[in-house]
């Protein structure tokens, strides 16, 4: 029996139908009645865009026609039916609340946190809340990607409003029923209570009436004061946990549809190669193989040239792939060489970069005048995302367009890409968001959706495109390698007065650095040092690169925060005191930007990490403490690592202490899990992970030569939050960047040896 | 007609299955038991861990022909037949172990075999037993804590699961 496909909970057609003849309200409070017009006409008529559009669609009331799977649908048979208060909420007469999660769950916990935000403002009884994954439709839900730790900050207001508006409608329904003022009513655990009389009604009893009331303007609804939160800030377990531990179908790879086929897609080992010839006739004759064909890939998104095999089982497809022989034409393919790049960099270490990123003061003059200068070259390798669920997507071309089930971080963008590439209107591209077996930035790319769509054109049944682990590791959009050539200057008092960073990065187009490469003019410490110069050199690159957890920061933090420690060591100063001096007075940099570096928040987390990590303790020989701070993705994080190094270069990480400021912590369990995971991910990556390529071919292929950290080497990670008064920001990424410099600074403290090249295994270190 | 003993039930296999097919793909594609995961296909990651006669095995590396006479337990069969969760499943929920969750079925299956052998494992026992299971999200600290927590709960009688 085929399980129900995941993520298909809300039928788009039902929403469309409901929109066609039901009253709706715009976000500005203006009432609009739509009669038998399409959503497109509705949008045109109201002239709404962006946030206003979202409000108009998702705030609509009167859900009697908004029948969705699981509702009885027939008038008069109200028992068991659910009343739709908005695109985010349905309430059943039994007082259970269904909350729709708009974002992709990639392991960052958003499928739990987003509904918590709504439930908090709704005053819902969390134990009676069920969660459903939203259809991929940005016209209703706004952007539905997950990246840059932006899910929470970008949705904080609209999700709180979604809960608060529904609560206001339920209160209004009770006020109407009891003929009392709304201000006399209170709510808690999905019950409205008339405070003076003690009369009360459940949300389930009020939902039908509430769903017929006008939708109030969200801007007029007062949101809760943070001190009154009852759900946010608690430790709430992941909403899919029970399904995960019992093995239920949740992930893209778990999609099963009647009559489906399975496909593999062989790609050029060096990116950009094309198929000269392949033994497709022979492969077609193999057991279980239905078809094998050569494709030029284009023009569907990032689908590259290659050979596709379609078979009646995953194993038949994988087995046939092993028998496939392809002659690649690599004349236009990547010829990248990691060893070659390192030689090239050696010729550039005394140069300034041709491209000036920012200049403050007079760096040359300050360096000449400095009492002491320090110079260093830092090197970070390419890295793979290696999510444990290999890339896959199930696609089905049928009479109503194309339908996909995909573990993507960016399904809405993938849907738009396919609409354009296949020349299909958006409503003919139905995308089901599945749970995602690890994101890390890999699934911001939509190449697997493009490949699946290309394969599905060939057959009239659903087909699951499957990547092998080797495909996944050899056809990634890699974290780009990075080189930093530093020169720093100290004055006679040991103050940092000059900082020069020549970053050697990569470009695919000769114009801009690839994703995750390059240096920002706002990168730390650009606004804190009187004489500073950032320049860039871009080496050509044929390998595909993309965002990798904390893009840019995950390599720059290692280089910058390690070199900063070199400066404090040269100055014979305590690194904590040195860092705090650089931060100076509390201020936003740049000013008036609430996603910017705040030196007061920075100083606070640095002090907290130092205090909790026991900074300043005397260590036995061979053991040291390292401290590092980094600001990324609006998160301020500082970490202290306690590390031993044996004479044989065996590293033991005894403990990592994390101090972070992301504003209020929304789900304490999830936030701690993210920080612990980020720290151990950072450690795993810096220890022994690197992607190398020669003649354009990636040399690693599986976890044997890309050895992720295993349990025995996971150190204790203590996590502390400063819950500042600022708006909440994301937690998936910013705890990762400070880890590598904290470890390397600790290695220096333990041994006097400075590590300037990652991974550590390159220098003989091991765990 | 060949069949498998999975989670206490006899499951008939479709005709024409290649006997070299790894058990993993028979479970997933032919029997619809998708809780057992594909991660690497080479025995590095442990996402495909099942029990064969109570012993943890990498189903990606066991040909189905070698599993025909064995009692197979997958994550779907770990809970008691009345639905009562295995202590590890309960501990995983209590401690909120998963992030992406993809590896967790394999982690739990490996841990279940450990608890049967060593009902009160030390950290070192756990690290040694779990070393073949990768977690890309690095939830290792909570996995270890959950195994300790499960060890304090009443254990299922007569093995860990239906069919073993």
Gross CATH architecture of the largest domain in chain B: Roll
CATH class categorisation of the largest domain in chain B: Alpha Beta
Here the CATH topology of the largest domain in chain B equals: Ubiquitin-like (UB roll)
Through-space gap between termini of chain A: 47 Å
User: What series of H and E elements makes up the topology of chain B?
Assistant: EEHEEEHHHH
Strand order of the largest sheet of chain A: 12-13-10-20-17-18-19
- Strand tally of chain A: 31
Helical content band of chain A: 25-40%
Whole-number count of domains of chain B: 2
Strand content of chain A: 15-25%
Q: Can you tell me the CATH superfamily of the largest domain in chain B? A: Beta-grasp domain
* Gross morphology of chain A: globular
Structural category of chain B: alpha+beta
The CATH topology annotation of the largest domain in chain A reads as Aldehyde Oxidoreductase, domain 4
Biggest sheet of chain A, in brief? Answer: 7 strands, mixed
CATH C-level name of the largest domain in chain A: Alpha Beta
In round numbers, the mean pLDDT of chain B is 94
């Amino acid at each position: 029996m085929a399980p129900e496909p995941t993520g298909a909970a809300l039928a788009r057609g039902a929403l469309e139908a409901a929109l066609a003849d039901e009253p709706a309200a715009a976000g500005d409070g203006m009432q609009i009645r739509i009669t038998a017009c399409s959503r497109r006409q509705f949008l045109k008529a109201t002239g709404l865009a962006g946030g206003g559009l979202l409000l108009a669609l998702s705030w609509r009331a009167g859900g009697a026609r908004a029948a969705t799977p699981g509702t009885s649908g027939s008038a008069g048979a109200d028992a068991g039916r659910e009343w739709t208060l908005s695109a985010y909420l349905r309430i059943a007469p039994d007082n259970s609340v269904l909350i729709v999660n708009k974002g992709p769950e990639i392991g960052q916990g958003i499928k739990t946190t987003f509904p918590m935000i709504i439930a908090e403002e709704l005053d819902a009884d969390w134990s009676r809340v069920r969660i459903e994954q939203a259809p991929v439709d940005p016209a209703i839900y706004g952007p539905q990607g997950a990246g840059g730790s932006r899910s929470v900050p970008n949705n904080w207001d609209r999700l709180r409003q979604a809960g608060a508006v529904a609560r206001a409608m339920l209160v209004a329904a009770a006020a109407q029923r009891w003929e009392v003022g709304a201000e006399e009513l209170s709510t808690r655990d999905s019950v409205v209570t008339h405070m003076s009389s003690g009369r009360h009604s459940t949300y389930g009893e009020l939902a039908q009436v509430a769903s017929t009331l006008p939708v109030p303007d969200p801007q007029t609804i007062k949101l809760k004061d943070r001190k009154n939160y009852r759900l946010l800030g608690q430790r709430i377990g992941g909403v899919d946990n029970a399904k995960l531990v019992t093995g239920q179908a949740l992930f893209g790879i778990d999609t099963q549809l009647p009559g489906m086929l399975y496909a593999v897609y062989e790609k050029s080992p060096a990116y950009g190669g094309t198929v000269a010839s392949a033994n497709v006739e022979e492969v077609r004759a193999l057991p279980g193989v239905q078809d094998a064909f050569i494709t030029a890939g284009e023009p569907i998104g990032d689908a590259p040239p290659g050979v596709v095999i379609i078979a009646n089982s995953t194993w038949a497809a994988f087995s046939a792939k092993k028998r496939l022989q392809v002659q690649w034409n690599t004349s236009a393919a990547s010829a990248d060489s990691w060893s070659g790049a390192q030689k090239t960099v050696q010729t550039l270490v005394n140069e300034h970069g041709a491209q000036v990123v920012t200049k403050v003061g007079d760096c040359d003059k300050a360096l000449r005048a400095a009492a002491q200068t320090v110079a260093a070259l830092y090197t970070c390798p390419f890295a793979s995302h290696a999510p444990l669920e290999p890339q896959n997507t199930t696609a089905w071309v049928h009479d109503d367009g194309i339908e996909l089930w995909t573990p993507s971080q960016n399904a809405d963008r993938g849907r738009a890409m396919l609409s354009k590439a296949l020349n299909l209107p958006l409503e003919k591209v139905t995308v089901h968001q599945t749970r995602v077996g690890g994101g890390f930035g890999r699934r911001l790319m939509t190449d697997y959706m493009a490949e699946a769509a290309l394969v599905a054109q060939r057959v009239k049944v659903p087909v699951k495109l499957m990547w092998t682990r080797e495909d996944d590791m050899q056809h990634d959009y890699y974290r780009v390698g990075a080189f930093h050539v530093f020169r720093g200057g100290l004055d006679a008092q040991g103050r940092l007065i000059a900082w020069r960073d020549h970053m050697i990065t990569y470009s695919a187009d000769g114009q801009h650095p690839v994703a995750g490469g390059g240096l920002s003019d706002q990168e730390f410490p650009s606004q804190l040092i009187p004489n500073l110069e950032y320049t860039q050199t871009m080496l050509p690159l044929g390998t595909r690169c993309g965002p990798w957890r904390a893009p840019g920061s995950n390599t720059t933090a290692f280089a910058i925060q390690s070199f900063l420690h070199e400066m404090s060591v040269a100055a014979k100063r305590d690194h904590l005191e040195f860092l705090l001096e650089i931060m100076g007075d509390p201020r936003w940099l740049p000013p008036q930007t609430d996603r910017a570096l705040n030196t007061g928040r920075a100083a606070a987390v640095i002090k907290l990490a130092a205090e909790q990590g026991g900074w300043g303790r005397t260590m036995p020989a061979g053991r040291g403490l390292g401290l590092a701070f980094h600001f990324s993705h609006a998160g301020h994080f500082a970490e202290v690592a306690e590390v031993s190094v044996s004479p044989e270069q065996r590293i033991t990480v005894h403990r990592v202490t994390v101090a972070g400021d992301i504003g209020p912590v929304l789900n304490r369990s999830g936030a701690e899990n993210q920080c612990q995971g980020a720290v151990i991910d950072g450690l795993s990556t810096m220890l022994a992970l690197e992607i190398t390529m020669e003649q354009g071919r990636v040399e690693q292929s599986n976890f044997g030569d890309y050895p992720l950290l295993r349990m025995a080497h996971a150190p204790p990670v203590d996590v502390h939050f400063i819950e500042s008064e600022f708006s909440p920001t994301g937690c998936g990424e910013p705890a990762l960047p400070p880890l590598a410099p904290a470890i390397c600074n600790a290695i220096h403290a333990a041994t006097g040896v400075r590590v300037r090249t990652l991974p550590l295994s390159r220098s003989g270190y091991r765990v | 007609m060949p069949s498998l003993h999975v989670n206490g039930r006899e499951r008939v296999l479709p005709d024409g299955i290649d006997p070299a097919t790894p058990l993993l793909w028979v479970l997933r594609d032919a029997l619809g038991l998708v809780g057992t995961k594909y991660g690497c296909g080479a025995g590095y990651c442990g996402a495909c861990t099942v029990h064969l006669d109570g012993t943890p095995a990498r189903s990606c590396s066991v040909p189905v022909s070698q599993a025909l006479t064995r009692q197979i337990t997958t994550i779907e069969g770990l809970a008691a037949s009345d639905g009562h969760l295995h202590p590890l499943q309960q501990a995983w929920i209590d401690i909120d172990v998963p992030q992406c969750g993809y590896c967790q079925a394999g982690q739990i299956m490996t841990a279940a075999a450990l608890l049967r052998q060593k009902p009160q494992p030390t950290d070192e026992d756990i690290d040694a037993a779990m070393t073949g299971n990768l977690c890309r999200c690095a939830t290792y600290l909570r996995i270890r804590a959950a195994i300790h927590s499960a060890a304090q709960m009443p254990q299922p009688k007569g093995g860990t699961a239906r069919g073993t």
